[in-house]
Amino acid sequence: MSNGLKPNVITYSTLIDAFCKEGMMQEAIKIFMDMKRVGISSNEFTYTSLINASCKAGYLSQTLKLKNEMLEAGVGMSIITYTALLDDGGSRRSFQGSASLGQILTGKYALPLFMGMLRLRGWRMLQNF
């Protein structure tokens, strides 16, 4: 930048999240790719924003790719990330018949989240997977 300031992970993640919330996935992905190009590592917030938006848009393959990339980069999934993956607004529609719970639920929050969802929604929730 001309004034000597350089964007960091917080700057990039904030822009990505804003584009995601506005449903502008192409722009969010462009920022994400630029972030990688300049060598800034993504964090849990960055990936969760992208995962949430791609789930809501019904982009199954992109969602699973982002989840796998997140784990390969050593970025842990939080309860917020799992919630985004299993949220009624997105993945229950987009994952139907395409992904197993095993593809989605990995890591330390998997069992507590799964049990909590069963308790709240009952066995009916499994019909969508």
Automatic annotation (TrEMBL):
**Which UniProt keywords are listed?**
Repeat
Q: Where are the PPR repeats?
A: 8-42, 43-77
Identify the InterPro entries for this entry. PPR_rpt, TPR-like_helical_dom_sf
Reply yes or no: does the keyword Repeat apply: yes
Keyword match Nucleotide-binding: no
Q: Which domain of life is it from?
A: Eukaryota
| A Pfam family per the record | PPR_2
Q: Which family does it belong to?
A: Belongs to the PPR family. P subfamily.
Q: Can you say what this protein is called? A: Pentatricopeptide repeat-containing protein
